[in-house]
Amino acid sequence: MCSMLASPPLTFYGEAVECAFRMAEAGMAGRVLPGGVCGATAPVTIAGSTVTANAEILAGIVLLQLMRPGMRIEVKDFTYPQNMRTGSPAFANIGVSLHGVVFSQIWRRYGIPAGMTTAYPSSKIPDFQCGYEKAIIALIAALSGINLQLVQGAIHGELTHHPVQAIIDDDLVGMIGRFLEGVEVSDETIALDLIAQVGPIPGEYLSKEHTRKWWRKEQFIPQVADTLTYPEWMKKGKKSCLHYAKEKMEEILAKHKPTPLTESQERDIEKILEDARKFYKEKGML
Predict the structure, then answer these.
(1) How far apart are CA 4 and CA 223, in angstroms?
(2) Rounded to whole angstroms, how far apart are CA atoms 74 and 41?
(3) How far lies 256's CA from each of 2, 101, 150, 165, 251, in Å?
(4) Range of the domain at 206
(5) Domain count for the chain
(6) Is residue 201 in a domain?
(7) Is residue 268 part of a domain?
């Protein structure tokens, strides 16, 4: 899939249109994004910036369908409020989620797959701010019924990705995924017969087959979160989720053995690079 990004307000640059032609010729699916900044290149209001975003996306869709009728399409909300103190996009502002939820409902009504602005934090490091910013955006997006969002690894907008943050984010999206699965209600999960069998104190459920069968289905088990009791945490070095994520990263790097590219793949990559050098040289950029 290749992305066609608008240049708000209400414009597509020639490079974006040329990219659209190329992905249409290649038989690729297309993604259209608005790219507005509320208060700068889009109206400052959520409603107004939704109007301009939809206009830009619909124009892109029409163009792609004229190029190749029936071309597969996905749209993505890529709209941020402006930080009025600095002039930069306000990554992780709650306005991102407000805009995304409205966007999600509109495109669900259109019946076109939609993605929401990725869970980009304003934080520059994997810290508490990074965690709550990503969690709020990702959870709200999921609850809105969005079809696609990218979460793992992003720090400070889309400018940085961090392997430790990606591992922590696995736990974040795992929790959200488990929530979206919901609660299974059946005679077996209600467990009235088991409740009657166990009865009051000194009854217990730990040794029961029902517990052995259902606990992994019902509970989400995080990979790097600290879930120890306080005494265990003290004995094991007072480690945080950052420590565990770094350990997991080192383990992955130590064990991972990437499959080497074939000679044919190497040649294909070199051909792509040659074409790119020629293209940018003609543009005076090399």
Answers:
(1) 36
(2) 23
(3) 29, 38, 23, 18, 8
(4) 183-221
(5) 1
(6) yes
(7) no
Main-chain dihedrals φ then ψ at residue 37, nearest 5 degrees: -115, 115
User: DSSP characters for 47-65?
Assistant: HHHHHHHHHHHHHHHHHHH
Q: Two tokens at 169?
A: 């984010």
Residue 52 tokens, joined: 């301009």
What's the rounded Cα separation, in Å, for the pair 218 and 220? 7
Distance CA 155, CA 167 (A): 13
Whether residue 189 is contained in a domain is answered as yes
Per-residue pLDDT tens, the chain, 286 aa: give them: 778 899 999 999 998 998 888 888 888 999 999 999 999 999 999 999 999 999 999 999 999 999 999 999 999 999 999 999 999 999 999 999 999 999 999 999 999 999 987 788 999 999 999 999 999 999 999 999 999 888 989 899 878 899 999 999 999 999 999 999 999 999 999 999 999 999 999 999 999 999 999 999 999 999 999 999 999 999 999 999 999 999 999 999 999 998 999 999 999 999 999 999 998 899 888 7
- Identify whether 200 is part of a domain: yes
Residue in this structure with the two tokens 């995304």, named with its chain if needed: 100
Contacts of 197 (CB under 8 A, 6+ apart): none
Write down the pTM of the prediction. 0.84
Nearest CA to 168 out of 220, 245, 92 is that of 245
